[in-house]
Amino acid sequence: MKKFSHFVIVILLQISSVFSENINSKNRELLSILHSNANWNIIEVTNDSISISEKTISGLELNAIKVEKVYDIEPKYFTEIIMDVGNYNSFLSNAKSLKSEIIKNTSDGLIGYQRINVNLPFFDDREYYFYMSQNPFDYQFQQVMCYWLLLDPKHDQKNLTLSDNAIYLKQGAGLWKWEQGQSGRIKISYILTMHPGGSIPEFVVEKINKSSIVGLLRDVETEVITKNSFSD
Q: Could you tell me the domains of the chain?
């Protein structure tokens, strides 16, 4: 058993090494910080029992945001919906302003693209490429369902084209994880930090991020329940 455990750890470390050579290392460093349960401050609990928390990350302009809710649903059903990036446009409530597509599938995840249509005078649209995977990014964090990292087209990946009329986002990461709750229930959390670029005031950015992350959890929850015929 010890030999087997050692073998698994070595393989995961090798995966991590390959990963770090090809994916934005600064954004990758954020994952462990986001995963930690330390230093979160609850700022709101919604009427549908979604807890919203935030914490400061040293060296970043914005706080990280976390939303979590307790379910009687296994995490794998959430992971299936979250990883299905190609289907986002069919169930996200903000699909009219958010274009999502898979650029390519890789051996351990996918490269995706999103463009946010900003319908405000004097503000450009936002766009970004991201790497997404449900494979472990660290063998210590087995309860991570999946995670994503923003990519820098100049360094992380080749042949990723940029638009002339949109601001490209480079700084950000996020992850979904589960924890065992009381009475056999499961707490699902979505955690992220991402700066939308430009000269938008920080308090406006944080308000937008809070609203969008709550909306995303609700949309995923609805799709999970609908697709698998769970009772609400």
A: 2-228 (3.30.530.20)
